[in-house]
Design goal:
The structure is a single chain. This protein has about 70 residues and is α+β, with helices and mostly antiparallel strands. The chain is built from two helices and three strands.
């Protein structure tokens, strides 16, 4: 019998909102970030999922500035 559950995920360093408030982003980082957000929205729409709204607060970044959504 297994009575433990382990959830492994990437380490999120900060929210996208905090990243934007900390310092100006480079143009290449803005393009990368927007591209990842648009890919996620396209995935949701392609799979018949809807979203109420898109806010920066549930979006987090990894050390390599990959964007992930959390709720």
């Amino acid at each position: 019998k297994h009575d433990r559950l382990f959830i492994v995920s990437e380490h999120y360093t900060q929210s996208l909102a905090n990243l934007l408030n900390a310092s100006p982003l480079t143009e290449s980082l803005i393009v990368k970030t927007l591209f990842e957000i648009l890919l996620a929205l396209a995935y949701l729409h392609r799979n018949g999922m809807i979203h109420r709204s898109t806010w920066l607060s549930p979006l987090y970044t990894t050390d390599s500035h990959n964007v992930r959504g959390c709720r």
